[in-house]
Each structure stands twice: as structure tokens, then as C-alpha cells.
Design a protein that fits this description.
There is one protein chain. By secondary structure, this protein is mostly helical. The chain is about 75% helix and about 0% strand. The longest helix is centred in the middle third of the chain and has 27 residues.
């Protein structure tokens, strides 16, 4: 452990930090007046999402963040719902 923290606690803290960072970058991008600044913030947002996904994947692989299998009917319903948003 590092300073009394378990591996799971360290990864959970990293995941929470990434979730907060993506929230802030999203908020900042919504408030940008200049397109070049907005584009830079959106690039950072995308990078933070990639980091968050990596941390989540690591936690999941180690059994620290188990997720139940989703019902295929519910998955299809969600896909249809969000497919309409993209149109």
C-alpha cells in the first residue's frame, strides 16, 4: 500500500478524479466564446475520457468495479433511444 491506501482505493480515487475532470472540461467547453479555445478544451475532454476509460477498465479487470451483464432487450432499447438523438 501507498501511505495506507490500498490499490483499490488509489484506483477509485483516480476514477473519481477523472469523472470530475470530464465534468469541468465539459462545462468549460460550453462556456467558451472563441472556437480555438473551445477546440482545445474539447481535445482535453476527449483525452480525459480516454484516461477515465483506462482506469475503469483496469478496475474492472481487477474485480474492483464489477458490472452485471445487461439484458439484451434493454441494451437494444437504449441503442434505439440514442440512435434517434443522433439523427
Amino acid at each position: 500500500t501507498t501511505m495506507g491506501l490500498t490499490e483499490k482505493e488509489i484506483l477509485a480515487d483516480a476514477l473519481e478524479s477523472e469523472k470530475q475532470a470530464t465534468g469541468y472540461y465539459n462545462m468549460f467547453s460550453n462556456e467558451c466564446v472563441h472556437n480555438n479555445v473551445r477546440d482545445a478544451i474539447l481535445k482535453c475532454l476527449d483525452e480525459e475520457h480516454e484516461i477515465q476509460k483506462s482506469v475503469f477498465d483496469e478496475m474492472h479487470a481487477r474485480g474492483y468495479y464489477p458490472t452485471p451483464a445487461a439484458d439484451s432487450t434493454k441494451v437494444d432499447q437504449v441503442k434505439q433511444k440514442f440512435a434517434q438523438c443522433v439523427k
